[in-house]
Amino acid sequence: MQISRWLLPALSAAAGPFSANGAQAASDNGFAVDHAKYANRAVLPDFTAADCPTNPRALTQIKGNLYCHTTGAGLAVHSGLVLITAEGALVIDPAMTCTAGWLRDEIRQRFHVGVKYVVYTHAHTDHISGAQVFQRDGAIVVANKRALEPIVGEKLPAALPDRVFDKDMTITLGGETVQLHYVAPSHSDSLTMVLFPKYKALQCTDVCQSKSMPYNDFLDFYYPGWIETLDWVAAQDVDVIDIGHYSPGTKADVVAERDYMVDLHQQVLDLARNGQSWDQLYRNVHFSDQVKTWTAFDSMHTLNVMGMYRWVSNHRRGEW
After folding, report:
1. Is beta strand 140-144 parallel, antiparallel or unpaired with respect to 115-119?
2. DSSP symbol at 96
3. Is residue 152 part of a domain?
4. Within 13 Å and on the Cβ side, how many CA atoms surround 58?
5. Residue 306 lies inside a defined structural domain of this protein
6. Is the pLDDT confidence value at 319 over 80?
7. Rounded to an integer, what distance in angstroms lies between the CA atom of residue 160 and that of residue 131?
8. Which domain holds residue 123?
9. Count of domains forming the chain
10. d(CA 43, CA 184)
11. For 8-51, what is each residue's pLDDT tens digit?
12. Could you tell me what percent of the chain has a pLDDT over 70?
């Protein structure tokens, strides 16, 4: 496998050392990032850092040692799965710096462990902000290798990953196994699926929906990979899918979303091929009665058409 210039080509051992009580210590098969290369990197102001004492937050049990953290309310809520083990916790997407300290302290007070790993689902600040709070305490920040360039290049005010991977990565923590998988460019080109096989649970942030509309006009969007990702999710043995917002979803929700995306793409493509301009086209896209009941339909459906129209316009060949 080719390792990009962003990475230090040092692969950790697949089998880590053993702890004093005989259990295997935390280990992973990611690649180390050379932080020295980015010691003086410029960063933008952290828009999530201002005190937010009234911001809703929670850490709720899903099943067994698997929990979900949330921050924010209504359409602004962000979420991520949290695995608690005797060896430490694994947190997905802290989301906000102003609530990350609360989450760290909540885990310490309730479970008497620190955070060992923080996993980024993708390189967007509304999900990865706050990881520096855990990293300063010694947590290992993990991301797909494709997330490193935009974090540095876009000057994102989030923790630089400590370890990255290309296609697959496994983390072993407190006798639990967490599987990270990269499917294809979809919502960003760095989106990571995080699978908890023991709990039949999956973190599928922003691409998966739960009777809810995809956000806005498909920012940072790759249509073929989006469909490929939904197909991959539908093939997994999972009961719970955390989508990074709103309520957890199911595979039935993912299948319904896939049907919606394919239908929207085909409608927009057909209308564009029939010569309709944007002013005509967006008025002639039809939505099923089911989709009209989804969360944020009224505010998002025209924006979804806009994003798909942009994708179709940029990728249809025509006669040339």
Report:
1. parallel
2. -
3. yes
4. 12
5. no
6. no
7. 9
8. 27-249
9. 1
10. 28
11. 333 333 333 334 444 558 999 999 999 999 999 999 999 999 99
12. 92
Do 151 and 129 touch, CB atoms closer than 8 A?
no
Q: Which helix (H) or strand (E) element contains residue 170?
A: strand 168-173
Q: Tell me the CATH number at 184.
A: 3.60.15.10
107 — pLDDT class (breaks 50, 70, 90) = very high
Give Cα 238 distance to the centre of its chain.
17
User: Token digits for 9?
Assistant: 């080509």
In whole angstroms, give the CA distance from residue 138 to residue 160: 13
pLDDT in tens, 222-272: 999 999 999 999 999 999 999 999 889 999 999 999 999 999 999 999 999
Output b/e per residue, 87-126; b: 16+ Cβ within 10 A: bbbbbbbbbbbbbbebbbebbeeebeeebbbbbbbbbbbb
Instruction: Examine residue 112 and state whether it is found in any structural domain, yes or no.
Output: yes
Contact 68, 80 (CB under 8 A): yes
Per-residue pLDDT tens digits for 134-189:
999 999 999 999 999 999 999 999 999 999 999 999 999 999 999 999 999 999 99
Could you give phi then psi for residue 160, rounded to 5 degrees?
A: -70, 135
- Cα–Cα distance for residue pair 91/117, rounded to 1 Å: 6
